[in-house]
Amino acid sequence: MNIIYFLLPLALVLGGVFVAFFIWATKNGQYDDLDTPAKRMLFDDENHTN
């Protein structure tokens, strides 16, 4: 039973840290464009430097 007094606050702190990092990432634009990077490999490059 004593382990719950340790694990429950630890889980809440870790959850808060992950939520804080997620909010930080969304404010910095990490999730702005989800479609273009996946389709970028299908486009031909116009600038070939050989």
Give a topology summary.
Blueprint: H1 2-27, H2 36-39
Describe the structure.
- This protein is mainly α and 50 residues long.
- 60% of the residues lie in helices and 0% in strands.
- It is built from two helices and no strands.
- The protein has helices at residues 2-27, 36-39.
- It starts with a helix and ends in an 11-residue tail after the last helix.
- The model has no long low-confidence stretch (mean pLDDT 85).
Total number of helical segments? 2
How far is the N terminus from the C terminus? 68 Å
The number of distinct β-strands equals 0
Rough outline: rod-shaped
Core attributes:
50 residues, mainly alpha, 2 helices
Question: What's this model, at a glance?
Answer:
By secondary structure, this protein is mainly α.
